[in-house]
Design goal:
By secondary structure, the protein is an all-beta fold. It has no helices and 11 strands. A hairpin with a 4-residue loop joins strand 5 and strand 6.
Length: about 120
């Protein structure tokens, strides 16, 4: 049974930084595409950053140069380091995963497994 649990959300002032984490359990697939999505108030859920099991990353244009996605070697934890945050980054952040690397580019894929989300508020 795959479970993804986010943590680390909170409130931060504009220009600040925040790191959110996702603990992954029950994931036994050798290949994976994992990433972060967010849903801003009044908007659709959108991809923010992705990483495949080979370590290739991709980002939404709106966060390039500010956000960094990473995962530990055992792929038990997924991280999103967010810098230079602005009010437009406010939203619920979800981690997601699926068991193959095909087309693992932000904006091109949707998760099979999802976390419950963590709120990030920038003011």
């Amino acid at each position: 049974h795959v479970q993804l649990v986010e943590s680390g959300g909170g409130s931060v002032q504009a220009g600040g930084s925040l790191r959110i984490s996702c603990t992954v359990s029950g994931y036994t697939y050798g290949s994976s595409c994992m990433g972060w999505f967010r849903r801003a108030p009044g908007k659709e859920r959108e991809g923010v950053a992705s990483i495949d099991s080979g370590g290739t990353t991709s980002y939404a244009d709106s966060v390039k140069g500010r956000f960094t996605i990473s995962q530990d070697n055992a792929k038990k934890n997924l991280y999103l380091e967010m810098n230079s945050l602005g009010p437009e980054d406010t939203g619920i952040y979800y981690c997601a995963a699926r068991p193959h690397t095909f087309d693992c580019y932000t904006g091109s894929w949707w998760g099979r497994n999802w976390g419950q989300g963590t709120q990030v508020t920038v003011s």
